[in-house]
Amino acid sequence: MSARRPEAKLNAAAPVFAALGDATRLRLVARLCTGGPASIAALTANADVTRQAVTKHLHVLEGAGLVHGLRRGREQVWEIEPAKLDEARRCLDIISTQWDAALERLRAAVEDG
Questions:
Q1: Given 3.40.50.300, 1.10.10.10, 2.60.40.1120, 3.40.640.10, which CATH number is that of 4-112?
Q2: Global pTM?
């Protein structure tokens, strides 16, 4: 694996993390992960966010590849794209590995110094 490969993966995942950086969008993703596909009506039930706002947030998530909408009769049903979440997790794994390596270098420098 080239040294640029992890950096390229992280750069490609930036839109995913940008989309997840909003609390409302993060809640929508969590809801779709735990509750499965849902309509706008279901996603806005018992929420203090309008249907229009939820729709806008879902379009941002869709642009990042995190969700997609399907027509079911007269409703648009939204569901999660698990592959994109897996990609984001792999990016966090890369960062975690880099962090662990940096901490190990620091530990070695302190103990050797």
A1: 1.10.10.10
A2: 0.79
